[in-house]
Write a structure and sequence with these properties.
The complex is a heterodimer. By secondary structure, chain A is mostly beta strands. Chain A has no helices and eleven strands. Chain B has no helices and eleven strands. Classes of the chains: A mainly beta, B mainly beta.
Chain lengths: 117, 107
Amino acid sequence: QVHLVQSGAEVKKPGSSVKVSCKPSGGSFTSYSFNWVRQAPGQGLEWMGRIVPIFGVTNYAPQFQGRVTITADKSTTTAYMELTSLRSEDTAIYYCARGLGTEADSWGQGTLVTVSS
Amino acid sequence: EIVLTQSPATVTLSPGERATLSCRASQSVGTYLAWHQQKPGQAPRLLIYEASNRATGVPARFSGSGSGTDFTLTISSLEPEDFAIYFCHQRSSWPWTFGQGTKVEIK
């Protein structure tokens, strides 16, 4: 079973940016999509976007377009999600999920991002 | 955007009972529909992909059915560890979306 290891919790000021990393413990890196999904406290799941490293193709949810950038470093087999212009409503757990919704689906442990002045 | 509507929001059942969870899509998603289980303080876990395929290691008491706009997740006989929140998810068209979840709680 592939494990996805995410970077640690972050506390950010409104207006700043955060960058979260996600590294799989094994398996292919380039063949699968890496998705980012967030969950605000007590709320449901919200898909933010994805990257397919082998093609470098990205897709973003409209509500995050312009504020989120998802990248993948093939040399270190690490995926990243950067969110800018943070506001309090961005306080959430951010999950990375490989191959979301497919047979290869695997989730990271989540990264808590707290936005507070 | 495809909206996924799950029902009921909460279902209260006893261990050993059958659970039937519904997910309805605002337009056809074919069979690109998955079900995830989430327990408190944990990341979601895939149960069913492509509407009816059990993920590796998922017990046979979990089954999925449906296509197009109407989908069902059935838990044939609830075990104590099955009390959790269940989310459906579509990857048929952009942006991918999730349902709001169904909580299965113990009676």
